[in-house]
Structure formats: C-alpha cells, structure tokens
Amino acid sequence: MKDRVEYKRSNEIPGLVLSEARFSDFRFERHYHLDYHVALVTEGVQRQGFHGETLLLTPGSIQLMPPGEVHDGISAGDESYTLKTFRLSPQLLNGLGEEISGQNRFPALGGAVLQDSSLAGHLSRLHDALRAAAPGSEPMEVQSEWLTLLDRLFVQTRMVKPQFVKGTLTPVQWQRVREYCDVHLAEKITLEELAALCNLERFHFLKLFKQTVGMTPHAWVVRLRLERACSLLSHTDRCLTQVAQEVGFYDQSHFNRAFRQAFGVSPSKY
C-alpha cells in the first residue's frame, strides 16, 4: 500500500493543525517539534524510540509529545499503520490550559502515553469531525467536544488540575442565552458567543450550562431548531429546504437525519 499523509488547518480552532497518515515504508528519523502533539495510532503498530526506550503505540493508546523532545517512528512490523495527530501551537495550548485550569500561569506539559481506548475513540472521532468540517458549518458541537476531551485528557495525565465548576447559570444569564438563540436560530451560533453573553470563559460556561439545563449547549440548540421546524411544518406551506434553512440547518441531509433521530420519522412524514 502506498504511503499517504494529509494535513489540514482547523477552521473552528485557530492554532490547530490536523494530520492523518497511513505509513508502511516511511520512517520518521530522529526529530523534534515546536508545537505540542497529541497522537493516536488507530490501526497497526508504530515503534518509537524516545528517551532511550522503545515504545509500541497501538490502537487505544494516546501519546502526548511536548515541544523539543527528540524521537523517531516506524512501523513495528511488515504491516502499515494509521496515525492521527492534533498539533497544538504554543498559543493555543496556553490559552486552553488557562481556560480549563482557571490559572493565569499554565505549567509546561510533559510527555506521556495513556492507554484509554474509550478516550482514544472519542479523540479519533473528533479528529474526523474537525477534518470534515466545511467553512460555514456549525462549530458548537466540535468546540464543546474539544474542550470536554481536553479536560478528560488533562485529568488523566494529572499534569493540570482542571478547575472545579459548581453552581448554575443565573436566571439573567439563562434568559440572555434563550433570547439570543431565539433571535439568531437561523444563523451559526458559537460557544464563544453564548459564553460572552454570560461574561464567562467557554469552559466555565459549558459546565454551568449543563448543570443548569441537563444538556450540552449544542444538544439544546439542536433541539430548539427541531422544535421550531415542527412548528413551521405544521403551520406553513414552506418547502423542506426553506424550513431547514430558517431553523439553522444548512445541510438538508443533516436536517433529515437529526429530525428522524428526534421524532422517528423524516420531516416529509411529519
């Protein structure tokens, strides 16, 4: 099988570069990075020389590689392997660390290899979603998932202690969020916009919202869009494409899939 590698800069997360590669013959010579890498081997096995030791990275493992660490990498046998990598710029990493930890000074993260197939699977699916995201697509789901998974990653490595967020949104904050979503439902709504309405950082808002509502902001907004779609389908003669656009679904197949998942039938059968 011919080796291949693809890179993509994330539209939703400035400072993040995603890569996915399938290697059989290619060998990473000893090298280092200036950014921070979170890497997953999703198929096959990579053999890596790091700190004078030999590591075998297998599906279910997550490697955190800090800047400046010298290492190499090659297929562990005759078979190829698939490697997915999140490459975080120092500015992105520092901003995320401060947001999640609640500390102005974010300590430098070291290297680690975690064995957690569940978290690795979530990270792999997030990687796919970020690579597939088209300009203008709804970013809230991947932004929320991004913060949530990094929170889990930091907890597992014990390199950063995430801030404990307790309580709920105030009645005024909750009203602002509802009113904003009602007015802007046909538009792209971001996590930053909703958090700013409450004068909160995204991570803090994400936690308080879920503790207030019992759903993530993305799940709540999607449900609001679907409920509004039901009303339009019941009381207007708009076509399905118009309804989908008026409630913020720019992809008809996404609208159909979400509607069927919520109500058990397609919009045309409602």
Automatic annotation (TrEMBL):
Matching SMART domains: HTH_ARAC (SM00342)
Gene3D superfamilies hit by this protein: Homeodomain-like, Jelly Rolls
UniProt cross-references to Pfam families, sorted A to Z: AraC_binding, HTH_18
SUPFAM superfamilies: Homeodomain-like (SSF46689), Regulatory protein AraC (SSF51215)
InterPro entries to which the protein is assigned, alphabetical: AraC-bd, AraC_XylS_family_regulators, Homeodomain-like_sf, HTH-like, HTH_AraC, HTH_AraC-typ_CS, RmlC-like_jellyroll, Tscrpt_reg_AraC-type_HTH
Domain of life assignment: Bacteria
GO molecular function annotation: DNA-binding transcription factor activity; sequence-specific DNA binding
Keywords: Activator, DNA-binding, Transcription, Transcription regulation
Occurrences of domain HTH araC/xylS-type (ranges): 175-270
PANTHER family per the UniProt record, alphabetical: HTH-TYPE TRANSCRIPTIONAL ACTIVATOR RHAS-RELATED (PTHR46796), TRANSCRIPTIONAL REGULATOR-RELATED (PTHR46796:SF11)
UniProt-recorded name of the protein: Transcriptional regulator, AraC family
Source organism of the structure: Paraburkholderia phenazinium
